[in-house]
Amino acid sequence: GAVVSQHPSWVICKSGTSVKIECRSLDFQATTMFWYRQFPKQSLMLMATSNEGSKATYEQGVEKDKFLINHASLTLSTLTVTSAHPEDSSFYICSAIPQREVIFGPGTRLTVL
Amino acid sequence: GNSVTQMEGPVTLSEEAFLTINCTYTATGYPSLFWYVQYPGEGLQLLLKATKADDKGSNKGFEATYRKETTSFHLEKGSVQVSDSAVYFCALSDYTGTASKLTFGTGTRLQVTL
Q1: Partners of residue B35 on adjacent β-strands
Q2: Which residues of A touch B109 (CB under 8 A)?
Q3: Do A44 and B89 touch (CB under 8 A)?
Q4: Chain A: residue nearest B41 by CA?
Q5: Distance spanning both ends of chain A, measured CA to CA
């Protein structure tokens, strides 16, 4: 079946640095991908909708300059957390929708020291 | 806007006990409803879904019925196993064009003991 992969699965970085997270659709093309953030013991919050070839659509309250999204091809979307701070530490999850069923990636755990 | 409310956990049950996790929703239009499961250290997996009123989704012994009159989608299982220990998320989708955004509940942690 359709699979969405993420890389890396976990990353630790120093405060002030930038981190890039990749989301790939395997065996299918995804013109739209979604990025979620999950805090410990809380639900997933939609951050933005990534659109291939155009600008991402950000949810209210999400800083677009902080969380840069690039959807340069039909199988890859990237989320870059710029100038990361400890409060950005979270579990980031992407999803895509082949055949009208949402498939989630395994997530990327970001820890900012 | 759309919202999903789940019962707070954690829920602790003995193996073979009956499970109910309540979920109610608020939505405009006619959303599809989902239950997702997240096992420790893993990503979300679709457990079951229902796309219209009175539909019953089922999978791995779990069931949930789309109740429009009570705006509910409660998850049930007749006999839980230790391997069912996970976090369960109720969600609804609001189809927008060819894609959909999911709105999640806060999740309910289930712990099943021997």
Answers
A1: B48, B90
A2: 41
A3: yes
A4: A106
A5: 37
Of A31, A100, A104, the CB nearest to B43: A104
In this complex, the residue of A44, A100, A106 whose CB is nearest that of residue B104 is A44
B-chain CB neighbours of A106 within 8 Å are 42-43
Among the listed residues A84, A26, A74, the one whose alpha carbon sits nearest the alpha carbon of residue A50: A74
Size of interface A-B (CB pairs under 8 A): 46
Which helix (H) or strand (E) segment holds residue A82: the answer is none
Amino acid B41 reads G
Query: Chain B residues with CB-CB distance to A under 8 A?
Result: 34, 36, 42-46, 89, 93, 98-107, 109
pLDDT digits (tens, 9 = 90+) for B50-75: 989 999 999 999 999 999 999 999 99
| Neighbour count for residue B12 (Cβ, 10 Å) | 12
Give residue-wise pLDDT tens across range B23-50.
999 998 888 999 999 988 777 889 999 9
From the CB of residue B82, how many other CB atoms can be counted at a distance below 10 Å?
A: 11
Q: How confident is the model at residue B96 (pLDDT cuts 50, 70, 90)?
A: low
Phi-psi map region of A86: left, alpha, beta (phi>0 left; psi -120 to 50 alpha): alpha
The gap from C-alpha A57 to its chain's centroid, in whole angstroms, comes to 13
